[in-house]
Predict the 3D structure of the following.
Amino acid sequence: MIERFNRYWKDEGIVIRSTNFGERDRLVTLFTRGRGKTKALAKGARKIGNRFGASLDIFNYSQFMFYSGAGMPILMQGLIKFSYRDLAFSLKKWLEGNYLLYLLDRCWQWEKPEERLLERVLYFWEVILKKGEEAYPSFLQFKLDLAFYLGITPHLGSCVVCNKTIEGEAYWSNPEGGIICPSCAREVRDKVVISQDLRAILGYLSSRGNSSSLKLSPSQFENLDKILSDYLTYEVGDKVGSWHDFQSLYQGVAFSS
């Protein structure tokens, strides 16, 4: 009886994505407090009047009950604790909220819990709901958050090679892991120019400055977003698209605001 009881457990979290499975079920990827990114089978989730309600919809924070059998965990029940469903009321906010889930899915390992990262997703959803276009710096900060929790924080304060303070223009190198000075850059093949103002923005965000109060030009955002996307791609070994790349995937989507 004790063994049977231990096969059931509860956890809280969000749905990253879900796909249809068979005629009535859903295969869901979750990010929960206790297990991090994990998969579960939600049996009967596509039936009318199923026991999950809207708990398996994105932009909801829910409590889930699981059953652990011989294979994949079975999702038995879901209950919404609080919701960010207003993100789904416009295409712009829907894409912005989904981009955070995309980044989490691309970069994070399976079965590695990190409650603070879950809290960051919820925090940035709040920012997107309130700030509109000013939410874009949050994408940069979330990418730096991912790098931090993955243990791959880029070196930003000085040259990663010689550790000297850099004045003026410098370079960014993915293989070296951050900023390099012009002198050391002569010996590095894979590098891109990064201006002093862009370095200052990264330094501010990496120190957990308030991204929602940061004003960026479109050019500044696009340059930094590409740099950090390429860096994560290099480190995690899977393509991490920039915000521009992500939007382009949905250019033909019909959506009513």
User: Anything to note?
Assistant: Helices lie at 2-6, 91-107, 115-131, 136-150, 182-185, 196-206, 218-236, 243-248.
